[in-house]
Amino acid sequence: MLRLPRFKYLRPKTAREASRVAADLGPRAMFVAGGTDLFPKLKRRQFDIETLIGLDFLTHEIRNGSTECVVDAGVTLAAASGDEHLNKSFAGYAEAAGLVSSPPLRNVGTVGGNLCVDTRCNYYDMTYEWRKAAGFCMKKDGDICLVAPSSSRCWAVSSSDTAPMAIALDGIVMLSGPDGERELPVSALYRDDGMDYMAKQPSEVVTSLRLTAGPNTRTAYVKVRRRGSIDFPIAGAAVAIELDGDEVVRSRIVLSAVASHPLEATEAEEFLKGKKVQADTIRETADIAAKPAKPLDNADLSHFWRKRMVRVVVEEALLRATTRTGGSAVKLLGRNPD
């Protein structure tokens, strides 16, 4: 049985206090909220820590406005997925929150925690004994990327479900650091690097998330995984479309689990702008959106299949966003993913 290592647990009362403690203790200290991703990694000895800094002081409110919604970082994913206003005006975000892991873990996992979830890789997310036998990778204890040995960087993939949707909704995070607070677009929160994947300072605490959507904005999030619950995404698409009748005024298309950061399909966004929502337009947009996705053999199932599925999930997300109906886009659009 895997056991947690010994560590000291601190309970600061405010975000400012927590960030100052983290700055003082350095890399041997980490923040913990729900701990749904952190604790399994600690059991597998993927992190070497001496201290955990609890974030249970974070507030748990969802403050609704006509075009904006502020979600405190301490809100659980279950609460976000079930919130009436989020489901009505920010449906894609509620969908993404409701697709994270399994119901018990959504009851403790938080909005802030899912934004900061660690990147994943089949060679990294294993027990210490497995990694030692196979050879350590550069993300922990080694010096090469086992997925791409000739590469100078780590290719672990971003696996947050809510981050792509937050980017599509022009999300802004509030960060609290030792010297004060600042705002940062969610799109600027990540780096394209499997190891150094967060652009915020390690001592900064995510305290809230602000989402924006106009009255004519439609959203959707579609996720592919081996099982219907628990598993992380192996391909996903977050879509936010602003419509004028059946014409697209503006769109954001952000992919999950196909890069080391949430990947925005900017070429597809530009192609869709000004066009009417039609089946052939959705198909062509999905084809363009899939081009920048370059999944590697470091996640569940074949990376060739995952590459093909990117255009499928984009199709389905676009269809759901524009119609807000159920059903499979593969069937409704008459498309074979192969």
Question: Could you outline the blueprint of secondary structure elements for this entry?
Answer:
Layout: E1 8-10, H1 15-25, E2 29-32, H2 38-43, E3 51-54, E4 62-64, E5 68-72, H3 77-82, H4 84-89, H5 91-98, H6 103-106, H7 111-115, H8 128-134, H9 162-168, E6 172-177, E7 180-185, E8 205-212, E9 217-224, E10 235-244, E11 247-256, E12 263-264, H10 266-272, H11 279-290, H12 303-323, H13 329-332
Parallel strand pairs: 1-3, 2-3
Antiparallel strand pairs: 4-5, 5-8, 6-7, 6-8, 9-10, 10-11, 11-12
Question: Can you tell me about this structure?
Answer:
This protein has helices spanning 15-25, 38-43, 77-82, 84-89, 91-98, 103-106, 111-115, 128-134, 162-168, 266-272, 279-290, 303-323, 329-332; strands at residues 8-10, 29-32, 51-54, 62-64, 68-72, 172-177, 180-185, 205-212, 217-224, 235-244, 247-256, 263-264. The chain has 338 residues and is an alpha+beta fold. The strands form three sheets. It has a five-stranded antiparallel β-sheet. The protein is globular.
Helix coverage percent: 25-40%
Return Rg in Å: 20 Å
Spatial strand sequence of the major β-sheet: 4-5-8-6-7
What is the H-and-E element order? EHEHEEEHHHHHHHEEEEEEEHHHH
> How many separate helices?
13
The largest β sheet comes out as: 5 strands, antiparallel
Average pLDDT for all residues: 94
SSE class: alpha+beta
The termini sit apart by: 41 Å
- The parts where pLDDT drops under 50 for at least 5 residues are 325-338
The percent range for strand residues is: 15-25%
Overall shape = globular
Q: Please give the number of β-strands.
A: 12
